[in-house]
User: Fold this.
Amino acid sequence: MNKKHKAGREKQGSAQSDARASKGGETHQQATGDRTILTTNQGVAISDNQNSLKAGGRGPTLLEDFILREKITHFDHERIPERIVHARGSGAHGYFQPYQSMKHVTKANFLSDPSVQTPVFVRFSTVAGGAGSVDLPRDVRGFAVKFYTQEGNYDLVGNNIPVFFIQDAIKFPDLIHSVKMEADRGYPQAGSAHDTFWDFVSLMPESLHMIMWAMSDRTLPRSLRMMEGFGVNTFRLVNDAGESNFVKFHWRPILGTSAVTWDEAVKISGADPDFHRRDLYEAIEAGAFPEFELAFQVLDQKMADDYRFDILDATKLIPEEVVPLQVVGKMVLNRNPDNFFAETEQVAFCPSHVVPGIDFSEDPLLQGRLFSYLDTQLSRLGTPNFHQIPVNAPKCPFANLQRDAKMQMMVPKGRANYEPNSIDPSAPRESHSYGFQTTPIPLEGTKVRLRAESFADHYSQARMFYRSMSLHEQKHMQKALTFELGKVDIPEIRRKMLGHLDVIDPDLGTIVAEELGMTGEAIRATPTVPHVELPPSLALRMIGKYPPTLKGRKVGVLLAPGFDVEVMQQLVKAIEAESATAALIGTKVGGVQDGAGTKQPVDMALNASPSVLFDAVAVLAGTEGDRALTENPDAVTFLRDALRHLKSIGLSGATSVANRAEVSGLGVTNFAGAKDGISTFINFARGGRVWERDSD
Ligand code: HDE
Assistant:
């Protein structure tokens, strides 16, 4: 027995003992042909990746084992600081293409030529939770887009809500401290339903408009593909002639908006904590590329001056009915990241990344953001060279005389690392014609710490938002407020909040007080300026705003033994004709026997697929299968929940289980009984929810 074989006998679980390093002058690449050999970070081929170096098979590990130490050291440092906000995110690559030239308002090249596709990277996120938190807390969603334009990177770092909690950047650390897990106890994770958040809100009436949005269905999106996005802060657009206008940025999902209910959100968080991340990934893998249209609200100085609210106040929006949206182009997300960490985690967005043609406003929240993002990347990514990481690097040429610093990946040549210089005529120089020009805005004023009086009305738009909602949406908001305030321990905080709600809308205040059992206990809030009555804006609603569609949604089809395979095939065909997905569910993941005794494959098992994961459901069963389902609590809950959540329900041979679950009424379609049963079922499913069934 030669030496190599002896060593092999001592190894535990070595699967690759034939992976040789180099032999007789061959490099390790040559030695292995097309097989990739495992090496250290120094390129040294590794002969054994299963066993550390020991003094004898059972002896202590030797410090000399540079392979073990390199591997463990690298592992020990795998995590980087997570984002202080928006830690939980999901990313995607894609492109943006304008429908028409916007040259009249902006000289930004990527908005000027309808034939140009600009690559983008998008990161959607929640705000409050850590990187490992669930996808469906009640929370604002981040909607950040990096455009790799030919004139440099432009980051549109927005949210799925058009306003913000605070007006001045100096309050941001306080806001975030209050909403994140409490300082002493370390909970709750990713939830705003706790004392410190509502304490802050009750003392900061400027947050009330955003609170109305946060308590609405907007904070429980059905999918990241079904959310609107907003730039929130007011920016400027500048054209070739140097004319500047104000702009509000909007993203509109082609699939329309959809939300889940609170009860669904709670259950989904248990059944699939990665609900949104999985949904985005799977849609892109399936070629159902998420699409969003970019739209502008453009205001000139006069319109801005005439507007009732200050356009520099990020707690206010401009209704579409006042300044209509101009649709500018479309973004298509068509590629999943290859590596989560390298791309989604390391991507670094900064609102200060603008290109010629886009400029800032004096919004004091935006001004603070312009500082914060660059600063946070330094601590998160550890070096000012974060722009060299592939996901952050511009795709156009870039050159300057910044040098060195940690993790420098470039090897600049020559002596000239300063400007002006005469020794290198090819060294980069400034360009007055191509360079970014700040819009010359006359400024004057006294240096003061002050909030402008034009920012003082905190109630009018909060009221407008609530009053613009449909009755269903208003009910959801009442329930959300009751739930959140119900989780607040200190009665004083609840009482203060009731006072604010009374000002926003006395009916809302009364209902929430009743639901909390605190009628008459509100502490009166006294606004500093009287609010004004604003006309409702129907564009703020989610329900009814977009045409009904099943496109991009998922229908859960539960199959029980003896089911009619023809009905299943027709149903799946009908679902797919809507560009929706059918998920086949079996009581066992190994498959289900159809009526002819053939075992049909399924996608998932019932115990892991509650109906909250689907937009509509159907149950197909033979007589035996139907009886078995009545004894299966998962099946009964599947139907009961679908009924409670107002979903379209289809039934084929599943009468007993439907009876057990007490499932009947509008939107419950028996495929056998009804003529065109499947198309009736699909029709209801297109509507999202059967609101008429909402007995509440
Ligand atoms: Fe952010 N925000 N923010 N924010 N924000 C960050 O930057 C900050 C605000 C938003 O997917 C941080 O890279 C301040 C409004 C998104 O990587 C940090 C203020 C809006 C993301 C930061 C705000 C946003 C962030 C943390 C008040 C909607 C995630 C990690 C002045 C327009 C981007 C990071 C991603 C991330 C600061 C307010 C959106 C700390 C100081 C308003 C979508 O720099």
Residues 3-47 form one domain.
